[in-house]
Design a protein that fits this description.
globular; 60s Ribosomal Protein L30, Chain: A; single chain
Amino acid sequence: MTQRDKILSMIGMASKAGKTVSGEFSTEKAVKSGRAYLVLVSEEASDNTRKKFTDMCSYYEVPMEIFGTKEELGRWTGKTYRASICILDEGFARALTKKISLNMEV
């Protein structure tokens, strides 16, 4: 199992536990309401979407990572294509951030 698979699997576990929201509107709402611990934006997201979430996460001091394809993020959250998902649990967020940073080093 690759590091990428482990990250996607963890996103799936967080989703099953009800600790994620997905889609731009829901992600934005979670960030602005202070419920977000981590925002994941798809590698395929448009420049506008990336900038929007980069600026918003910076302002609200929420960590953000660029990870996964829209199809991967959607499949692992049990939805269709997703450009963004938000992790609502501190433990999952911390573990995902750690795994994603390890994945970047490989």
